[in-house]
Amino acid sequence: MVYPAAGGEKTLKDLVAEVKATNAAFARSKREVFKSSYSSHYRAGLMKLLEVLDFRSSNDRHKPVIEALALIARHKDSATTYLPLGETVPLDGVVRKDWMEFALHTPDKGPARIMRTVYEACVFQALRDRLRCKEIWVVGADRWRNPDDDLPDDFEMRRAEYYEKLNKPRDARVFTAHLQCEMREALGALDTELPKLPWATISGKHRGGAIKFTEPEPQK
Questions:
Q1: With contact defined as beta carbons under 8 Å apart, do 57 and 129 qualify?
Q2: 146 vs 122: CA distance, rounded Å
Q3: For residue range 166-214, what is the model confidence (pLDDT) as tens digits?
Q4: Do 124 and 76 contact (CB within 8 A), yes or no?
Q5: Would you say 176 and 170 are in contact if contact means Cβ atoms under 8 Å apart?
Q6: How many helices (H) and strands (E) does the chain have?
Q7: How many CA within 13 A on the CB side of residue 220?
């Protein structure tokens, strides 16, 4: 009954394809606008910040971002479209998958090239994300300082005492197992109770479900 009313199965499939294409095009458009804004406005200020800020990380996992920042600094005065051939350009952990098509140019002949300004924008986005959780920190900063400086000066000597006061285990595996258990219990409780709530519904019209709440009565 649905297909004829909608104009046939092909019409519905075409609509789905159009929605997917539109969303992808919109995402590409956003990235193009961001790239344009970065190149024409933000880049100059960020390059000056690179000259005076010293970024570091205590975790080798984030070394690619530190190396990418050094690469950007070496070519900050360049006006070329691509990063020079022969440079080791960190990509994993730096350029997100949805940006790769903009950062990487594959010509008909010759090796793939890295678009310089697009790569810079990707690096600064990766830096922002890691600064927020102090995976990368700034030398001499206050809020964005080395997370080791957040610990008491005598932490190493009184580690056991401080862990006991925080009521936390010293074994990382025990800590994460307990945290995972808490999360599973909380999600299980939500999964069990949500369908029973008279003031909450989950709509099937949206992909993945949309939780909706009815407006409560005014409280005294």
A1: no
A2: 23
A3: 999 999 999 999 999 999 999 999 989 988 888 888 777 766 667 778 8
A4: no
A5: no
A6: 8, 6
A7: 0
Torsion of CA 149, 155, 157, 159, to 10 degrees: -140
**Does position 29 have pLDDT exceeding 80, yes or no?**
no
User: Which letter does DSSP use for residue 115 in this model?
Assistant: B
Give whole-number Cα distances, 31 to 9, 37, 74, 97, 163, in Å: 34, 10, 25, 12, 45
Using alpha carbons, select from 67, 112, 111 the residue that is nearest to residue 90: 67
What pLDDT, in 10s, does the model give residues 61-85?
999 999 999 999 999 998 888 999 9
Pair 103, 114: CB distance under 8 Å? yes
Q: What angle do CA 137, 49, 79 make, to 5 degrees?
A: 125
Amino acid at 75: H
The DSSP element (H or E) to which 177 belongs, if any, is helix 172-193
Burial class (CB in 10 A: 0-12, 13-18, 19+), 80: exposed
Beta bridge partners of 56: 137
3-state secondary structure of 213: strand
The whole-angstrom separation of Cα 121 and Cα 37 is 10
